[in-house]
Amino acid sequence: MRIPFWVRKLAGGLAAALLASGAHAQAGQEITFWIRAADAGFVEPLVKTWNAKHANQVALTVIPSDDFVTKFGTAVAGGAAPDVVAIDLIFVPAFAQAGQLSDIGAEARSLPFAKSLSPSHVRLAMFDGKQYAVPFSAESSFLLYNKALFKRAGLDPNKPPTTMAELEADAKKIAALGGGVKGFYFSGACGGCNIFTMTPYVWASGGDVFSADNKRETLDNPALRNTLAMYRRMWKDGVMPSGVKTDNGSNFISPFFSGKIGMQGTGAFAIGLLKKEHPEIDFGVTPLPGEKGGSSSFAGGDSIAIPVGSKHKKEAWDFITWCLSEEVQVEQFAKNGSIPVRADLADNVYSKQDSRFAMASAAMQAGRTPYSVHFNQLINDPNGPWLAMIQEAVFGKGVDVAIKDGQAKFRQILATP
Amino acid sequence: MLTLAGIKMPRRWAGLFFILPCLAVTTVFFIVPLLMTVWMSLNTWPLLGHPSFSGLKNYVDLFQDESFWGAVLFTAKYTLVVTPAIFLFAFALALLVHRSVRFVGIFRTAYFLPVVIGMTTASLLWTWLFNDQVGIFSAVLMDLGLVDEPVQWLGETNSALASIVVMVLWKAAGFTMVILLVGMQAIPTDLYEAACLDGAGWWAQVRYITVPMMRRTFALALTMSFIGSFLAFEQFFVMTRGGPFNSTITVVHWIYRASFTYFKLGYGAAMSVVLLLMLLVLSGIQLYLLRDEP
């Protein structure tokens, strides 16, 4: 019997493919790993290091930060979940509630350093008494200020503001320098940015956004009212550049690079970035203050978890434990200007080189994080009630109207299971 | 009897075979998804988790959802602004490139070129053109000394809407222009020659020959641009994200939010069905108004 040429060719191709996949299986498994774009900078070198040393290869996929929840949710629903995900710690409750993450409590508790893992991360990894994630990376918020502008405005660059009133007065003095110099900056069209940099003022002043049991909103409190009012005054008085109104987070840090911004809230990533790319800017960092002193911080970052659809759970856990090792937390993260998620590693050779990192680490340990399964709809959604409230309060009709509207919309969303 | 691909069949079957590819594509890519959407709209269908039948609940909720009707109103406003704008602009362009003069091909290509760019790409491009830090529009105005501070083009509802309309004009007018051009060139030239002999000027020729002879083309161009505008999504999603103050959220943007931010696929499906019905009715009215006179 004569076999057509194309059949022989196809058979040959198939055999080659089978051989290749056989060889691949011998070399190790492929672990798929999804992260958000904001983390690409420190995760890409980490994956490269892992792949160079291990038989199991990690295949990294970077998802645009804003679309992460949507993309991951859709992938899980379509049965195409990755083996490992690093997600903003804030979203762990929602995915745990939806039954999309594997319970890794037993493994996590058996880690020798289990007790020193970032408490905020661990608290948000819990749902109904089970643990669905472990910390991956840490990010705390604090106030970043330009020392050169402080000097020019006649302020002491070594005495950053310790109350909100001082902050506002300093910002005004800096803005009075003119020539495009402004006292304060924030991303006014970005919900996530403001839970990170604005709520610490509220917490430090004794207020909060959610009740202690996370079930109700507590927006109508003097601390939030006064914080929003301070932002509104700074906007009305021209202390902030006009761009704050439309900044959806894409200019979260870049205006500071121009050297024309006096102060702004930011995260530890900015320290490394400024040192590396803008050594000409002399900057200081200080905790975000409250109305009458005190300070607070948002303890953020990413948690790492194994989706229920993962086909390589054991290999995935090996990778995760490696991510928590000193080799990664210190030699990868701390070295490149971020803070370790393990308290026992907070004091390391790199944090000792720059006291600004020590401040960021201390802020992390003392930081707070809201817990809500509706976090995305409430806070991060660009059309959600948190951002609508900030926009209305700072740029629109005013604080009272904004808080009243915000309360109604928060309640509506919180009422759904 | 007829032989097709070696098979003998009655002649009337052949017709069926000829439309089969079209029928198959329409069934797989339109009718089946449409029926699935209708079925989904009758369920509480979370993106994560299991759907459960809920009858007309989604529709009842929808009729009480102020934000949805706000989005419908805004989309209608946008459509009423952008459809005539595109049409008039495209008609002017078509009149310009209608005559065969030198280099007319270059102009036709230039006006049509933005059409082949994806809407998302075009929106991103214009987002940066409108950007206050690096955008060219603010920079030019500041260099001319007309403004002191960068203009926040997307900062107010009306200026954001105007900015997007300008972008869409640039992006979509070329397509309408081509449709109108085809209609224009189908008009026999002897009509113009006769009018010329009767002493009709350029304007009279446009008014009494071109416009009346293009009624059907107008109907096609207007309906297409109307439906396109009513389904607007990318330009708003990319350029304003529905802001400022959530004042530029279109219907399709709302469907996207319900489905992928709130993970309520059933509710999103119900909105899609309502939008489809609205478009059917509105297009029907439009075609009736633009019908050939009896």
- Compute the CA-based radius of gyration of chain A: 24 Å
β content of chain A, as a range? 5-15%
Taken from the alpha-carbon principal axes, the silhouette of chain B is flat
Distance N to C terminus of chain A: 67 Å
Secondary-structure element order of chain B, N to C? EEHEEHHHHHHHHHHHH
Biggest sheet layout of chain B: 2 strands, antiparallel
Biggest beta-sheet profile of chain A: 8 strands, mixed
Distinct helical segment count of chain A? 19
Estimate the strand proportion of chain B.
Answer: under 5%
Work out the radius of gyration of chain B. Answer: 24 Å
Structural class of chain A: alpha/beta
**Count the strands of chain A?**
12
Assembly level: heterodimer
- Order of adjacent strands in the largest pleated sheet of chain B: 1-2
Shape of chain A: globular
What is the share of helical residues of chain B? Answer: over 70%
Task: Please tell me the overall pLDDT of chain A.
Answer: 88
Largest interface (CB < 8 Å): A-B, 29 and 23 residues
Q: If you had to describe this structure to a student in words, what would you say it looks like?
A:
Helices cover 45% and strands 15% of the residues of chain A. By secondary structure, chain A is of the alpha/beta class. In chain A, strands 1, 2, 3, 6, 7, 8, 9 and 12 form an eight-stranded mixed beta sheet that branches. The longest helix of chain A has 23 residues, at 5-27. Chain B contains 13 helices and four strands. In chain B, the strands form two sheets. Chain B has a two-stranded antiparallel ribbon with strand order 1-2. In chain B, strands 3-4 form a two-stranded antiparallel ribbon. In chain B, β3 and β4 (52-53) form a beta hairpin. At the A-B interface, α3 and α18 of A face loops of B.
